[in-house]
Design brief:
The protein is α/β, with parallel strands linked by helices. It contains 8 helices and 10 strands. It has helices spanning 61-82, 102-109, 159-169, 186-191, 209-219, 235-250, 256-261, 268-294, and strands at residues 13-20, 27-33, 39-41, 92-96, 113-117, 131-132, 144-150, 170-181, 225-232, 300-307. Strands 6-5-4-7-8-10-9 form a 7-stranded mixed beta sheet. It is globular and about 55 Å long.
Length: 310
Amino acid sequence: MNNSCHNCKSKNIRFIYKTTDYISNEEFRIQRCANCDLIFPLEYPEDINKYYPKKYRSYIPIVKKIITIKSQLYVRSIIKRYSKNSNTIKNKVIEIGCGNGDMLKIFKNLGWDVYGSERSGVVDKNNELNISNKDVDEYPNEYFDLALLYNSFEHLYDPREILKKITTKVKKNGLIIISVPSHESFQCKFGKQDWVHLDAPRHLNIFSIKAFKHMMQSIVNTAVLEIVSHKSISFDLEFYGWFQTILNKFYKENNLFLKYLQDMSGNKIKFYTSLLQLVILSVPCAILSGLSMISNKGAITEIILKKKSD
């Protein structure tokens, strides 16, 4: 059994609570490191693939449509930000944990050369998005203008090593954009073991900005990489997170509404009950979401890193 922090290797860790995985119904012990502030399950699963069923993130049509619209807006905002750092006509982007490549398709349609990294179980070898499961090390150094990890960094067994590798693969003045759940959020402090974004064991590392800085400074020279900004993003995820987390406090089984949205449950009675509860809780969830975003204590934090020119 591992008795040290997965981030800084400190032995100064403490148990904070147990949580039950909504897919496998297995129980996981969640620890917090007193040294670097990381939250993580005590033991990482040897075979993580069994916790990713085929329907994981395979949403019902209306949710897919919302995600598509949101992805288009997000990618365009990224390109707008990146254009301030580059004069390159043809840019290259790599997305780590790209899923089926929804965001990469948008980048490609906007003229970017795209590459994706994903688990072998979901890689389509006949794709046009250059999605593979090969190691980041296999790409040339200073090859990419932009590296994107959208809600995927927390899924990695060794995020320290991945960040170290990505830094060498990004060009000077290039950006690394990482979005992760934050345990500094009001939502996490309220939900604790019932927080929807805790999602153990798929989420192997839950960061605070302190934990992220500790990891970054331990592996990357600050003369090479700098944090340009960190802020709470995704009001929609914030709103949904509050709604599902509040429901989790009242039910023995977590994430019932999420299971229906992912087409994992056909129980329409529970679904329509959840819709009624959504109507009832919409105003308080909107208020809580607004306060969280304004205070920069939202559930999802975006961290933008820039590789310095010299």
